[in-house]
Amino acid sequence: MCALLLTAGGLALLLVPSASYREVSESYLCPRTGRVEPRYREQNISTCEQTWDLNNTRIAIYDMDKNHTCTPPCREVSSGTVVLDTCENVTLTFFCETSAGRVAETRVHFTGIDSRKEEVENHPGTTKGTEGPSGPPGSSGLGGAAVAVIVVVIVALIVLAIVILCYRRQRRSAQSVPQEDPPVDVPEP
User: Fold this and answer.
1) In 3-state terms, what secondary structure has residue 18?
2) Alpha-carbon gap, residue 21 to 36, rounded angstroms
3) DSSP string spanning 86-140?
4) Residue 131 counted as domain residue
5) Residue range 43-60, pLDDT digits in tens
6) What is the DSSP letter of 187?
7) Which of 6-13's residues contact partners 24+ apart within 8 Å by CB, and which partners?
8) What is the pTM for the complete model shown?
9) Higher confidence at residue 9 or residue 42?
10) Are residues 52 and 93 in the same domain?
11) How far apart are CA 45 and CA 183, in angstroms?
């Protein structure tokens, strides 16, 4: 089996007994401002050839010989990390030689999550910026639990009103029925 590596110096073809392949997905939180850093933390990959792609276009290469390349939106690259100008979905591909002399290829698909969206979803009453105190424009600011509580209270009030009306009707009907007096013996003259 062979593996094709793209390094800063060009292409390299490695012939290896066999190779393994693994693909995973991770998400990362993009801050409102500042550095956007997708970072691979599962294992130390500093001795592995690493590339970063955006929409199937290479934006960064990290290799052990310090021949790093970085093109926009990449600002800098280091082992397992790329610093971007904007929140992007990127793929890290790295090739590591195992102790058995085999090449293991891993692809990590990073999905950038905008921190403003995350904040609006988790804390609609605490967002700042263009949104009002109750969350994004057009939202009521009420969470599902608050709506459920309001519905339960309204239903309870309706049931209570029906019970009170039924009780009053029973009392009125009991008062309006004339009670018969016991028969009185009237003496005959």
Assistant:
1) coil
2) 27
3) S---EEEEEEEE-TTS-EEEEEEEEEEEEHHHHHHHH-GGG--SSSBTTBSTT--
4) no
5) 888 888 999 999 999 999
6) P
7) 6/51, 6/58, 6/61, 7/49, 7/61, 7/63, 7/67, 8/61, 8/63, 8/65, 8/67, 8/68, 8/69, 9/67
8) 0.52
9) 42
10) yes
11) 108
Q: CA 122, 126, 128, 130 torsion: positive or negative?
A: positive
- Name the token pair of 69: 């390349």
Pairing of the two strands 103-114 and 19-30: parallel
Q: Which two tokens stand for residue 172?
A: 């009125």
Total residue count of the chain as it appears in this document: 189
In this structure, the answer to whether residues 95 and 59 fall within a common structural domain is yes
Tell me which of 136 and 112 has the higher pLDDT. Answer: 112
The neighbour count for residue 44, using CB atoms within 10 Å, is 11
CATH number at residue 82: 2.60.40
Q: 32: which 2 tokens?
A: 């409102």
- Cα gap 36→154, rounded to integer Å: 47
Q: Are 151 and 116 in a shared domain?
A: no
Q: State what percent of residues in the chain have pLDDT above 70.
A: 67
The rounded distance, in Å, linking the Cα atoms of 3 and 11 is: 11
Placement of tokens 């910026």 in the chain: 129
Phi, psi (deg, nearest 5) at residue 21:
-135, 135
